[in-house]
Amino acid sequence: MTDPTAYDNADFIPDGHSYFPRWAAAAEAFRAALPASRQRLDRVYGPHPSQAFDLFLPEGTPEGLMVFIHGGFWRLSGRKDWSHLAKGFLGNGWAVAIPSYPLAPEVRIAEITRSIAHAMPVMAAEVAGPIIISGHSAGGHLTCRMLCPDVDLPRDVSARISGILPISPLADLNPLIMLPMNADLRIDAAEADTESPILHPEPTCPVQIVVGSAERQSFIDQAIRLADVWNRSDLSISDGCHHFDVIDPLEDPRSEMVLKAISMASTD
C-alpha cells in the first residue's frame, strides 16, 4: 500500500511551510538589485498566460545559457519565485532563463512537457553557446524529459545541450498514481509510462543527479533508480540537505554544484 504522505515535504521539514514565501521574497529582492539592463522579463513563448520566461544576463558576453525549471509538483509556483537561483551561474558568466508553464489541474503533465519543449528553442535563441538544463523536483522531471527521444527538440537546440542537472527529480511517475495529489495531476498508467524519464533511453550528454540525504526516502529512491538506469550519470547525495534546501547551492557561484555543472560544458 502506498503511503499517502510519501512525497509530502513541507510537513516533514522544520518550518517547511515558510519556504515558498521566503523564496518569493528572495527572488523579488534579487530582481530589485540586478540592473534592469541585465534582465529581460516576461518573454513570451506561447499563447497561454503562463508560457513566458525571465532571462538574466551576466556582465559581458554570456558563456552559455542555463535553463532552470521550477518544481511544485506541476501544480504550484512560477518563474517569479526562483529568480535568486540565477546567482550561481550569473557569477560564472552564464545567462539564466527561468520559464513558467501551465499548471495542473488545468493541464496534464504531458502538456507541461510539451510546453517546456516549446520554450526551449525560444530561450535558446536569446543566448549563444552551450546550454545546461537544471530543474528541481517536478522541474527535475521536466529537465530529464527534454533529453528523451519522443520530445524531439530541434536539432540545433539539442546539439547545444552540454548536460543536465536534475535535482531531486521525479523520474518514475507510476508511484504517484495512488497519491491524493493525483486528483489534480490525473496521471494514468499510459501517461506514467510515457512521461517517466526512467523508462526512456539514457541521454548521450552528461547527467548530474543531485538529491539530499535528509529528503523523504521516496525522493532518494527516485534519484538512485534513475542513476541505476541511466548508468553513465553521476549521482551526488548532498549530506544533510532536505528537499527544500538542496537547491541552495545554485545561489553560490563557487558551490560544488554550480562549478561541477558548468564543467559539463567543457566535456563536448
Automatic annotation (TrEMBL):
Pfam families: Abhydrolase_3. GO terms for molecular function: hydrolase activity. Keywords: Hydrolase. Residues 66-173 form the Alpha/beta hydrolase fold-3 domain. InterPro entries: AB_hydrolase_3, AB_hydrolase_fold, GDXG_lipolytic_enzyme. PANTHER family: AB HYDROLASE SUPERFAMILY PROTEIN C4A8.06C, KYNURENINE FORMAMIDASE. This is Alpha/beta hydrolase family protein. It comes from Aliiruegeria haliotis.
